[in-house]
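Sharing a chain and its predicted structure for anyone who wants a worked example. Both blocks are below, sequence first, tokens second.
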Amino acid sequence: MNPKVLLVDDDRELAELLRDYLARDGFVVECAHDGQAGAQAALSGRHDIVVLDVTMPLLNGIQVLGRIRAVSQVPVLMLTARGDDADRIVGLELGADDYVAKPCTPRELAARLRAILKRVQGGPAIPPEDGQELVVGPLRLCPGQRQAEWQGTPLALTSTEFSLLEVLARQAGTPVSKETLSQQALGRPLARFDRSIDVHISGIRHKLGPLPNGQSPIETVIRKGYMLLQP
């Protein structure tokens, strides 16, 4: 079945260009041209992934993302102005799965969409060894169902957060570099000055909360990356 994409961008000319390319590349694309229409369409349940521009009338992309994440974990890719790190970081903090800086090529956008959909459907680059759930202390992951629990309570993780946590869980007790996390969880090389991994890890830490001793279950290992602690 062809992936269903919602493209929300007030630049109609660009939206038509991207829609035509994505359609030729096997996507089914619906467009919305303002934030209110985009939010309504994103919450309809008709789409596999949402592409959301930051700068739009009525509601901007950050506001739309907030409405989406209040009730849905549908994957969201943000379109941000090149060099606008503030919007990029705010979007990631609110639960965007990834971003592409504008102007972008349709080919790059299609590749990012496929990378996100691949990890939603099939997990990270590391294949499951036995198809079974992963248990690390109070953390339980079911890769096949993309479900996670912490201390017996379900975790509402974005697709990117789940993939990052899965990579860390498969190597629990061992530091994992940001480069490895980006390749295996985001499906792309780590770009220079890219803070995506740090922001996503911060979001996961917030959802997990501290251990009984007050320590975070995900430790920062200087010059080596991040490590999920073993009990």
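Comments welcome. The mean pLDDT is 91.
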